[in-house]
Amino acid sequence: MSKQKMLQFVSVAKEMPEKREAEARAHDFNEIYAEYADTKAAEQAARCSQCGVPYCQAHCPLHNNIPDWLRLTAEGRLQEAYEMSQYTNTFPEICGRICPQDRLCEGNCVIEQSGHGTVTIGSVEKYITDTAWDEGWVQPIKPAEERPESVGIIGAGPGGLAAADRLRRAGIQVTVYDRHDRAGGLLTYGIPGFKLEKDVVMRRVAQLEEGGVEFVLNCNVGSDISFDAIRGKHDAVLIATGVYKARDLNGPGAGAAGIVAALDYLTASNRVSFGDDVPEYDSGELNANGKRVVVIGGGDTAMDCVRTAIRQGAESVKLLYRRDRANMPGSQREVQNAEEEGVEFVWLSAPQGFAGDPVEAVMVQKMRLGPPDATGRQTPEVIEGADYAEPADLVIKALGFEPEDLPTLWGEEALEVTRWGTIKAEFGTHATALPGVYAVGDIVRGASLVVWAIRDGREAADSILTYLAQPASVAAE
Ligand SMILES: Cc1cc2nc3c(=O)[nH]c(=O)nc-3n(C[C@H](O)[C@H](O)[C@H](O)COP(=O)(O)OP(=O)(O)OC[C@H]3O[C@@H](n4cnc5c(N)ncnc54)[C@H](O)[C@@H]3O)c2cc1C
Ligand code: SF4
Q: How many other CB atoms sit within 10 Å of the CB of residue 69?
């Protein structure tokens, strides 16, 4: 996307919030961008007991100074709260919206644990930085001095962008390569707009671009340019490519029309919200409107699919998961939101095949939980004779993602990977087996969270700065 087009989009998008809120209220959806007025933020912030044992901070991957910025918010000192918040987090308004707070900061709030309901830390964090953008407190990126060294970043998701921000502020020449036509990674094309509005992501991309970060989009490293060529162009390289190999389903009928991959479905929906022309959406192939939708999987991606399908006007939306509610990896808060929106959860159920082409039904096996496996998790077992057919016009596979085989795709066998195919990178520095090459985010951790990718990106940027400061002979070792 050209810079002009991106800025145009940001200005149009600024007019969107009121429309979105009105729509959400009309449909009774649980949207994250529902109003969060001054008084509510201050009221929530004032509930923090300043307990002196900030478990919330310890359980935030960025170790945000939560009690301090809550206190400043409660005192009405919002600009100071913003400055403190952005000191530890590159994209606080994004984390405030989409971190699974119930598993991180808020789940460890002392007030929550004493049974009085958590301080809504994420919403306050979002509010502080949204206010900073509105008030013009967010400063452009202006390095104190330009440095000659250049860093190539492969992947414009949160890991790559967090590193780009930190390196550029230090005056490094930064180029970010991405195979998509827009930057943002899963923030742009994975996570739906009802959780993370796209103008919020694009505004950050525009900030980086205005600050001198170069984006080379529609550029697939490994085919449009070789990994070797990128290494030759830059003094250091950061790999932040995420994980995109979708786990698939087997069984009779698995190739029928109407059975689609979660990320294709979510990407189409996100593209529509950008105003793109999406033929697969218009044809109904990737559109749930009027359909009986069955989503298979139990993680956050499955949750995003069911909630998107409901918003697209599906006739019915069911989620099949082979374990029970208590053993579901997705956020419990999201399960509750989805249930309130009309999604039906069909626990202890797994697909064994599909009828019809285009698909007409999922053949479902009922399961029970057996004894725990080596990891301590109860293994699902089939209940013989309890099969049934679940009618469906659209089946969405949301079974998780694995890393692509980068050493082979990039012809770089010396890039070491783990037995899961993720890139081996040193804890804390994020250095890989190749000199001057670092790796962060999902491609190292496996499918994880935005906040961890941001932390990795910040840490790797610091390691790269140290590496670039070394004499050339040491750096080459
Ligand atoms: C549907 C969905 C919903 C999610 N919801 C949440 C949520 O609510 N909260 C949360 O914290 N986390 C969520 N996650 C997880 C989160 O999005 C990821 O953990 C995070 O985006 C990882 O960041 P990353 O920078 O490592 O990779 P990504 O965001 O995946 O970005 C990687 C980028 O690299 C690019 N790329 C890959 N290969 C190449 C190549 N060869 N050449 C050029 N470019 C390349 C890709 O196009 C992409 O833009 C969700 C994930 C999914 C799939
Ligand atoms: S970054 Fe995430 S975990 Fe940390 S305070 Fe914000 S919402 Fe909580």
A: 28
d(CA 287, CA 303): 16
Residues 442-473 have pLDDT tens digits of: 999 999 999 999 999 999 999 999 999 987 65
From 64, 108, 119, 128, give the residue whose CB has the most ligand 2 atoms within 8 Å, as the site to mutate.
Answer: 64
Structure confidence at residue 413 (pLDDT):
96
**And the tokens for 119?**
């301080």
**pLDDT tens digits, one per residue of 428-443:** 999 999 999 999 999 9
Q: CB of 289 within 8 A of CB of 391?
A: no
For the record, the structure tokens of 223 come out as 């085919």
Residue 1's pLDDT is 46
Contact (CB, 8 A) for 256 and 457: no
Question: Which residues have a Cβ under 8 Å from the Cβ of 371 and sit 6 or more positions away?
Answer: 378, 379
Record the pTM. Answer: 0.92
The pLDDT value recorded for residue 319 is: 97
User: What is the Rg, in whole angstroms, of the alpha carbon atoms belonging to the chain?
Assistant: 23
Helix (H, G, I), strand (E, B) or coil at 437: strand
What are the CA-CA distances from residue 382 to residues 37, 351, 399, 455 (Å)? 50, 11, 19, 41
Ligand 2 contact, 95 CB (< 6 A) = yes
Please indicate whether residue 343, judged by its CB atom, sits closer than 6 Å to ligand 2.
no
**Local structure of residue 344 (DSSP, 8 states):** E
Residue pair 437/407 in contact (Cβ under 8 Å)? The answer is: no
Q: Which residue has the tokens 């192939």?
A: 285
Nearest to 343 by CA among 395, 308, 393, 394: 308
Q: Quick one: residue 12, left, alpha or beta (phi over 0 = left, psi -120 to 50 = alpha)? A: alpha
